[in-house]
Specification:
343 residues; BirA Bifunctional Protein, domain 2; 2 domains; seven-stranded mixed sheet; 9 strands; 19% strand; elongated; binds 3,4-dihydroxyphenylalanine
């Protein structure tokens, strides 16, 4: 019995050490271990020499060994079949391929790309800035000094470690970063993510996306602002779009205006999105405040500029009729896969 067990252990080691190679050695293995006169068969023959009270235990050991030897055979057979196939070039090239499912772009990315594309045709290039901003670029440089009441319009997330740091509340901070480095003519579009301390609901989120636009040069007028934005909405929503400017207030522009378009969801008859007015606000804008230009050493007697900032989610909502802001960040594939586009 002792001898037999040692013998089995030795066979096991022999089998475990085998590196499968080729059909011939596979067949030799089968004959040696699993054939009708093979080792496994012989070992089972030894059963009759085993004392009765050990038969059960020995039988189990033998069965285990048999399964082990057979498993090795199957594994070997498969790897041999694969290498046999590829070495003889027997892959059937006429078989249909496995189509990889194609992903879709996120609707926010689609709309952002389209915005960039439309303004690109007017000579605007993309500028980017950090999402973790300092007070100067997000507020003070934009004519929003400390304690300015307009700071309350935006519930700001501050960074614990440094009270001067915050998550940018608007992409207007990129205006400041660009004017600090670049002199006119400046014609930029600045898409990106912004953060505000809002409770998440269908209509508000603690992060969303904006794009800023800035054009500074000699003789830039409000008429340029209006025509540029009109061109933009016509490209984005179609030629039938109507626009309306309302006077507004932003510390970094003077005069300031908000722009509405006629509601793309209900066509003007009234719905929840336009709050039954037929008009939807899509952006804030105005002529760059002379003080802002001076903050960056740009001569405000020589240069003028316009700026605007719009929410990408809002444009997306009107374009694709998305009624709940939370859908943008829930990553539900049933939502995401509905969007396709060439851009
Ligand atoms: N930063 C403003 C906001 O987040 C939007 C805005 C208004 C940007 C007027 C501008 C502007 O550049 O001129 O509400």
């Amino acid at each position: 019995m002792e001898q037999l067990l040692q013998q089995i252990e030795a066979y096991k080691q022999e089998i475990a050490a085998i590196v499968p190679n080729g059909a011939d050695s596979l067949e030799a293995y089968r004959i040696k271990f699993l054939g009708t006169k093979g080792i496994v068969k012989n070992l089972f023959g030894e059963m009759r020499n085993v004392p009765n009270d050990k038969k059960k235990e020995f039988g189990q050991i033998l069965n285990e060994f048999k399964q082990f030897a057979e498993a090795k055979y199957e594994e070997w057979k498969q790897s041999t079949a694969i290498s046999h196939q590829s070495s003889k070039n027997e892959i059937d090239l006429t078989l249909p391929g496995n189509a990889l499912p194609l992903g879709t772009r996120h609707p926010i990315s689609l709309v952002r790309n389209e915005i960039v594309h439309i303004f690109g045709r007017l000579g605007f290039s993309v500028a980017e800035g950090p999402e973790i901003e300092d007070d100067w670029h997000n507020f003070t440089a934009l004519n929003l000094p400390e304690n300015h009441p307009a700071r309350d319009m935006q519930d700001t997330f501050y960074i614990n470690q440094n009270p001067d740091w915050l998550l940018r509340t608007h992409t207007s901070s990129v205006q400041a970063r660009v004017m600090e480095k670049q002199k006119p003519p400046i014609r930029i579009i600045c898409p990106g993510r912004v953060y505000r301390n809002e409770t998440i609901s269908a209509r508000a989120h603690c992060f969303f996306h904006q794009t800023e636009g800035l054009y500074v040069d000699e003789n830039v007028s409000f008429a340029d602002l209006k025509q540029t934005l009109y061109f933009f909405v016509q490209e984005m929503f179609g030629k039938d779009v109507k626009i309306r400017f309302r006077p507004s207030y932003f510390p970094f522009t003077e005069p300031s205006a908000e722009m509405d378009i006629n509601c793309r969801i209900c066509g003007g008859v009234g719905c929840n999105v336009c709050k039954h007015t037929g008009w939807v606000e899509i952006l804030g804008s105005g002529m760059v405040h002379p003080k802002m230009l001076e903050n960056f050493g740009i001569d405000s007697n020589k240069y003028t500029g316009f700026a605007f900032g719009m929410g990408i989610e809002r444009i997306c909502q009107l374009k694709y009729r998305i009624n709940d802001l939370r859908l943008y960040s829930q990553n539900d594939v049933r939502f995401l896969k509905q969007f396709t586009s060439a851009v």
